[in-house]
Amino acid sequence: MNRILTGLILLLITAAPASAQSTDIGARLDAKLSNLSIQGMEIEGVLADLGKQAGVDIVLDDDAIDCLPWGKQTRLSDLSITSASLRSVLTQITDSLGFTFNARDGKIVLSALEPLKRLRRRPTWDEVKLLHQLTEKDYATDTFANLKIQYRITSKVDAKAMLQRQLEQSGRGSISQMLETATAALNWVWFVEEDHVVIRSMEAQVAVKLARPVSVRYSNVPLSQILNELGEKADVLVTFEPGMMLKLPTSTAQSYTLLLQSVSIRQAIELICAETGLKYEIRTDSVHMALSDAAIADPGKAATAATPRTSPYAAKITMPSSEGGYTLEFLVRTDELPPDILEARGQMLQELIQKVRKEIAPAQPAANAPGK
User: Fold this and answer.
1) Rounded to two decimals, what is the model's pTM?
2) Do 184 and 121 reside in the same domain of the chain?
3) What's the rounded Cα separation, in Å, for the pair 200 and 147?
4) Which of 171, 179, 243, 261 has its CB surrounded by the most CB atoms within 10 Å?
5) pLDDT tens across 130-159, in order?
6) Is 320 exposed, middle or buried (0-12, 13-18, 19+ CB in 10 A)?
7) Which CATH number goes with the domain that contains 287?
8) What is the pLDDT of residues 108-138, one digit of tens each?
């Protein structure tokens, strides 16, 4: 009994600081601010001034900068504060940007709403304004009928009719809330683009996230860690077939090397699959990794494919598609190039090195003429 009481007391003591911290931030959000005038200031400066007066750190989350029209240089419109709470001021600011805020780790953190994040680029002010309107207006059938919507659903279905039926079952709320509820039920997502709303499948959205370019350097790292970190960079969950890693050679599963420069996350995963005998599948909310059919049929092929490549990358071949809609990039290792190309590459590198050395060499002082 004494042990149980001791454990309970320790649990309460451990939990107390977090609860007190949350209460403290809540109190600061509801505290009244003195007179404050904001005139054309950059957003980080505004948040710093508000935080200083309220006694709490107010920051943007890691992805917020890329969801602002002008990034860090985004300036807020003039705003005069007279005896208003921090909560009301932040609500006014975030509503105008398509953002929200919450308490996190003793700070107040501003983050973009999902429809802005799904753009995967900085929005225009017109797109921010459209999102604000959709967030403010209550859903009504006649109002929604006037909204421009582009359906990027590849399957042969009546997407418009499906969405309308789902909206009728989604209760009440703003247009933004109703769209979020209805599209999620259909395994779709939505976002604003120019003067309209775009709707596409969750699988397509995952594919867009995987197009993010990255540069990575992993040396003798567990393969599962590499795949999980690539997923984190794309903001996509990576799942694994049970027992998959146990079927790979230990040298690959526990000590994999991956060196890539400016390639998409999807290309990185495809390279890993090519070298290890794995395959991947894009699902509605994740990327699933499993052994390829060939590796299952012949386990020896997986072991052969998974043999670590020690040859470094020597070149990147870029090829635009015939339609011009996309670009193909191929990474080439030194052992994949013929001897004459390798020799020409070496000569080009030496010429480039000599040129750079001349450019960075310090200027020599002019010599004095004899007798002077």
Assistant:
1) 0.68
2) yes
3) 16
4) 179
5) 999 999 999 999 889 999 999 998 778 889
6) exposed
7) 3.55.50.30
8) 999 999 999 999 889 999 999 999 999 999 9
